[in-house]
Amino acid sequence: MNQTAIARSWVEHANGHNDFPLQNLPLGIFSRPGEAQRCGVAIGDAVLDLEALLVADVFEGAAKVAAEATRGGALNGFFALAPETRRALRECLQALLGEHGEHRSTVEAALYPASECQLHMPARVGDYTDFYVGIEHAKNVGKLFRPDNPLLPNYKYVPIGYHGRASTLRPSGTEVRRPKGQTLPAGQTEPSFGPCARLDYELELGIWIGQGNALGEAIPLARASEHVAGFCLLNDWSARDIQAWEYQPLGPFLSKSFITSVSPWVVMSEALEPFRCAQPGRPEGDPRPLPYLTDAVDQARGAFDIELEVLLVTPRMREQGLAAHRLTLSNTRSMYWTVAQMVAHHSVNGCQLQPGDLFGSGTLSGAQPGAFGSLLEITEGGKQPIELASGEVRTFLEDGDEIILRARCTREGVASIGFGECRGTVIAAN
Ligand code: MN
């Protein structure tokens, strides 16, 4: 690797940082004890206070317009900006934090240790839509119900999704209360009511919508990427027993709406540019997408190469000081539809998307064991328990279990970046 080609920051701990080097600069909403929630930028192990830089008047022109749009304790106004205005702030921050940055003492005074900062939801989410574009997950789950015909006939034509619950989105670190609900126990004909017994995680990519569209006006595929401001990790916690009983005919409802966790840093689309790649070719015999979902540039550059990981820590592992158990190692290349195709499809009927809307990709499993993005797949519906180094076994999550999602982008010759973490610990039902 040509190290000299990688720009460095005067913030020394940012250089070579696992998640947040100069090349990432994700935005989020943070607070310090007793202070207001405001926009910050992750740089190394620090958070840069944009409000402090605004007060010190270090921004000019479009960068100043963009920085002012981050005010108000949520990034919706920033997401609503034209992409070039958003980019002006990014370029300005890269210059300020770069080796030869100006206003260094001012910027240095606006840096706080990340450990002193609490992170919040980055935006007020008007609508949350969860897709189902992880084809290996769709096949794995389909196989549990239909061994010979796992994918339903619409899958290769329609980026499948459902409308999720925006009010129960929470930032990483929020406890996950085990939901109660109706289930149909095996062999019974009448449902029971009680705490979920098959609590699961789903490893997903979160997609933050930037500029929206007017009601009735579709976003064409060729322009869809411009409507995506950034990305995060998303854990679509799922109560499999509640889901199995309720999902027909209208899809997931209370089995998903009790909480959805998101990582708090918004990794900007621009930071992911070096990690774009070609959409994997469709297998022989798969249909071509309809014209509104077909675009040569999107096929050539519309996928992302992001490594995804899920870790489990049980209470006993914590007591014994054992390392977290890796449940999943997969990649966003398993998406059957690109992010741009998801945006184009969502709006093709005239549905209005708004700045700060959030999409989930759907569970991103790989084809092989070790790459499955939910316990439903790993344990084959609870039939194959996992053995842990602590001597414990798991089919689904127990109270006290913590799930940690991570993501990392690496490519020869460019700085690696990461997403930070999306954590959640299960607590007992009320
Ligand atoms: Mn999901």
How is this structure best described in words?
Strands 6, 7, 8, 13, 14, 16, 17 and 22 form an eight-stranded mixed beta sheet that branches. Strands 4-3-2-1-5 form a five-stranded antiparallel beta sheet. Strands 9-26-25-20-21 form a five-stranded mixed beta sheet. The model has no long low-confidence stretch (mean pLDDT 97). The N and C termini lie far apart (53 Å). The radius of gyration is 22 Å and the shape is globular. The chain folds into two domains: 3-120, SH3 type barrels; 128-427, Fumarylacetoacetate hydrolase, domain 2 (Alpha-Beta Complex). The chain is of the alpha+beta class. The chain has helices spanning 50-55, 61-68, 76-79, 83-97, 104-109, 135-145, 221-224, 240-246, 269-272, 296-301, 315-320, 339-347, 375-378, and strands at residues 27-31, 38-43, 46-49, 111-113, 118-120, 128-131, 161-163, 169-171, 176-177, 180-183, 192-195, 199-200, 203-209, 228-235, 238-239, 260-262, 267-268, 276-277, 303-304, 307-313, 325-331, 358-360, 386-387, 393-394, 402-409, 417-427. The structure holds manganese (II) ion. Manganese (II) ion (MN) is lined by residues 130, 202, 204, 236, 360, 362-363.
